[in-house]
Specification:
- A two-stranded antiparallel ribbon has the order 1-2.
- The protein is globular, with a radius of gyration of 17 Å.
- By secondary structure, the chain is mostly helical.
- The protein starts with 6 loop residues before the first helix and ends with a helix.
- The longest helix is centred in the middle third of the chain and has 20 residues.
- 44% of the residues lie in helices and 4% in strands.
- It has a domain of 72 residues.
């Protein structure tokens, strides 16, 4: 099975060690099933606070599945590390390039102009991150 990112790439970017390969789980530990679309907020997690914006309390998908989320997080973390190690030239071009890469795999993270991904990418461009 081919995935968008390799386990080694995820381990390297996030500094993980001691993570077991799938199939090497201890006996009796169930393997994770493929999850469906990841959503902004689960309906049971909606706050009951007066004045809370119901716009964010929707079941709008932000990723098609866990693979898409892992890919986006891994590539985003790698970009942040690269920007920290460089002088920050061409930040906007690099962020736009990453946005295109992620959208090629899964367009959901950037479909809504007010999505958390769009907000995070704008903050990287503005050197807030």
């Amino acid at each position: 099975m081919n995935f968008a990112v390799t386990p080694d790439e995820v381990r390297t970017v996030f500094g993980l060690s001691g993570v077991q390969q799938p199939g090497n789980s201890p006996q009796g530990v169930p393997r994770l099933a493929r999850a469906g679309p990841l959503r902004r907020h689960h309906s049971r997690a909606r706050p009951r606070t007066p004045g809370w914006s119901t716009r964010w309390a929707t079941d709008t998908p932000i990723h098609r599945d866990v693979e898409s989320l892992t890919y986006a997080l891994t590539k985003f973390a790698a970009l942040r590390q690269e920007l920290e190690n460089n002088d920050g030239d061409d930040v906007e071009e690099r962020v736009d390039g990453l946005r295109a890469q992620i959208s090629e795999l899964d367009p959901l993270p950037f479909e809504d102009e007010d999505s958390q991904w769009n907000l995070a990418f704008e903050e990287v461009i503005d050197c807030i991150w």
